[in-house]
Design a protein that fits this description.
Strand content: 25-35%
Helix content: 10-25%
Radius of gyration: 18 Å
CATH topology: Ribosomal Protein L22, Chain A
Number of helices: 5
CATH superfamily: 4'-phosphopantetheinyl transferase domain
Low-confidence stretches: 1-36
CATH class: Alpha Beta
Number of domains: 1
Shape: globular
């Protein structure tokens, strides 16, 4: 059974990553555009090495910008900031301030500001420059790019929101994050496996910027944490499940194999292991 899932942006939020509604798959399938060649599972993915870091306001020493095969993942609550609120606010660009001002309510505005402050703190430490001097190229849809001011190395940043959590991914190539959050009254019978499948599919769609993808649902049901897909002309993609508490499911898709993953904000009890069912 093919799975074609269109990710809808919440009406009150610019965060396209958070999937908080569920729509019947048959209805969406009628609007899908099929690829010339069907997607299929790629060769088995080797589980990456995970390096766990505590979420503190002291940035880890000797952690350099991600290169090929590296992935950095951050998870934190909206209230967490690496610096006092006033200092973090001074880092924002004029465009970011304007976007924050246009948010429809205080909660979404605070969430946006928190995410951008942390992104600037991360990139400033990776590039050894002041956070306010970080040049973020923003597509307006929470997908960012930054280039090292001296050696020209580029990184890609994606931001996802889900429930109380903000998740940030950083890599040297295109990536996409997705968080599937249960919503009261929507898909009450959805299983954890179904939510996991939604998160995996959403990560691929976000990485591809909503490009249509035709994937057999069974391909997304693997019980391994890391899996790979060949999406024909869309390329070869690697997907990793992110452990989240409760009924929340999350995943990240990367345009290359990830050999080493640095994680921040995940307790060791929530290990990156076999997929939850």
């Amino acid at each position: 059974m093919p799975l074609e899932l269109e990710l809808a942006t919440p009406a009150l939020s610019p965060a396209r990553n958070s999937i908080e509604t569920s729509v019947a798959e048959p209805a969406l399938a009628q609007r899908a555009v099929h690829l010339a060649q069907p997607a299929h599972a790629a060769d088995a993915t080797v589980a990456p090495v995970f390096i766990s870091h505590s979420l503190t306001r002291n940035y880890p020493r000797n952690l350099s910008a991600p290169r090929a095969g590296d992935l950095h993942l951050w998870r934190f609550r909206c209230e967490w900031l690496p610096v006092p609120v006033q200092e973090g606010d001074s880092w924002l660009s004029k465009t970011e301030r304007e976007r924050a001002r246009l948010h429809p309510n205080a909660a979404l505005r605070k969430r946006f500001i928190s995410a951008r402050v942390v992104v600037r703190w991360i990139v400033g430490n990776l590039f050894e420059c002041a956070p306010r001097d970080v040049d973020l190229q923003d597509d307006g849809n929470e997908k960012l790019r930054a280039r090292h001011p001296r050696d020209g190395r580029g990184i890609t940043i994606d931001i996802a929101y889900g429930g109380i959590w903000i998740v940030i991914g950083v890599a040297s190539v295109t990536l996409g994050l997705s968080v599937a959050v249960p919503s009261p009254g929507a898909a009450p019978d959805e299983t954890p496996a179904g939510a996991r499948r939604r998160a995996r599919y959403g990560s691929l769609c976000n990485a591809l910027r909503y490009a249509p993808v035709d994937i057999d649902a069974n391909l997304l049901m693997s019980n391994t944490t890391a899996c790979a897909f060949d999406l024909a002309e869309q390329g070869h993609w690697h997907v990793l499940d992110l452990p989240m508490a409760g009924q929340i499911r999350a995943a990240v898709a990367l345009a290359q194999p990830f050999n080493r993953v640095h994680t921040f904000g995940w307790p060791k009890s929530l290990a990156f292991g076999p997929a939850a069912t």
